[in-house]
Design goal:
The protein is globular, with a radius of gyration of 25 Å. It contains 21 helices and no strands. It has four domains: about 210 residues, MFS general substrate transporter like domains (Growth Hormone, Chain: A, Up-down Bundle), CATH 1.20.1250.20; about 50 residues; about 180 residues, Growth Hormone, Chain: A (Up-down Bundle); about 55 residues, no CATH class. The chain has about 525 residues and is mostly helical.
Length: about 525
Amino acid sequence: MTSAAASSRPAVNPWIIAVVVALASFMEVLDTTIANVALNYISGGLGVGQDEASWVVTTYLVANAVIVTATSYMVQRVGRKRFFLGCLALFTISSVMCGLTPNLQFLLFARILQGIGGGGMVPVAQSILADSFPPEKRSQGFALFGVAVVVAPVVGPTLGGWLSDNLSWHWCFLINAPVGALTLLAVSLLIHEPEGSREERERQLKKTGGFDWIGFGLVATFLGMLELVLDRGLDDDWFGSSFIRIAAVICALAFILTIPWELKHKNPAVDVRMLATRQFGACFLVMMATGALLLATTQYLPQLVQENLGYTATWAGLLLSPGGVVTMSMMFVVGAISSKIQPKYLIAAGAAFVALAMYLITKTYADTGFWYLAKARMVQGIGLPLIFLPITSASYDGLPPSKTDQASALLNAARNTGGSIGVSLISNIITHHEQTHQSRLIEHVIPSGQAYQQTMSQMTQYFMGQGSSQITAQQQALAWINEQVQSQASFLSYIDAFWVLTIISLCAIPLALTLRNVKLGGKVSMGH
């Protein structure tokens, strides 16, 4: 993607270009988390359940993961600037569509378009940065880009919560319109294609051949059907539903057909041989688990405190902010120590910190204070950079230079696919376990039991003291007991979900330790 660039440094100050592309990437990453704390408002505003509202997150992630595999070809086909502008325009327009949505179906369609537009922007932004700076200043440009990408998930929940509480959840998406329009204008004026890029693209297209549209279609079908099964399974009684059975069969067929097709294709959309290697395959799985942990906690921790601890969307967003600050700080620490410690040990340590954070959240109770949960999120903030940064050097080890674009695309796809699967999995656990806990708790609510009668009497007296008649007070007391049962069942289901996330984190530790050692303090070895 960056060929033929060295001879054409931009006439504009490269730092201005860095700010523009970082802003575009900031918007894209922001939209993976900004809606998370607004899901209660979205479900209420559109008249849908919490599990259906979570599709707003998962559809975006799936579309994002799918389009990444086609980015390199599309840049070769239409040119980097035109592709970037096209993605940015699609992202901005679809953001406005999300904000003006009349119903859930339209919102999900708009989120898919938004995911497609956003998925193409980040890899191309990195290429533009690489071409805008001379080699000796390139790392500084990437540092600015990295800060933008890291800050966005921190700002997202807080901004989304404030907008939802004070304006409307629609502004979580509409806010992209002025920023997107300004960025579109800046990109069209400031960024130019490098000299000779068209000839270079034509040479690359002849060399690689046409794009693997069939492979791309099979991967998109597999991921799309998998998400459909995970999202709709609980509502449709899983395999008791003919719709779910058909979707599962299509998903399985697409997966089975993908492997032989991609193995024989000269320029596969997804290089399955890379996924089959011990080194890259293990990195891919760890990145999927990390995506699941990152996105599931970013969505369901705010939901837990809003539903069960009475937090507003703003405070639910603020709860995540200290962890984001720790993550930003740890980026610099990990950058300093990664040249001295093997990636596999850093990744294993990171997974251990994340597991500890998930375990701490399982100890939450009804009177848990703000800072207990904020500190648990800060522990997670220590762990995530220990995974994200070293996994890049570990995954590239042993790969020829021609495969680095594919590796980058696959790691991005792994993070987003893992995040989507994680959100769907936790949504199913919460919904299913809430029903189970409720049925078990009701068994203990026995009208003839002493505890029940005592509670009923106390609450009846309380409501009578508030001015209700005895009959009305008894009805209010009964409703209050029912509400307590439902609240406790919901609370316990979230605790179960965070136990599952603890186990996923622990599984990543031995997986990380299977990675081989890489050469420290220099480039990773290319070829083994």
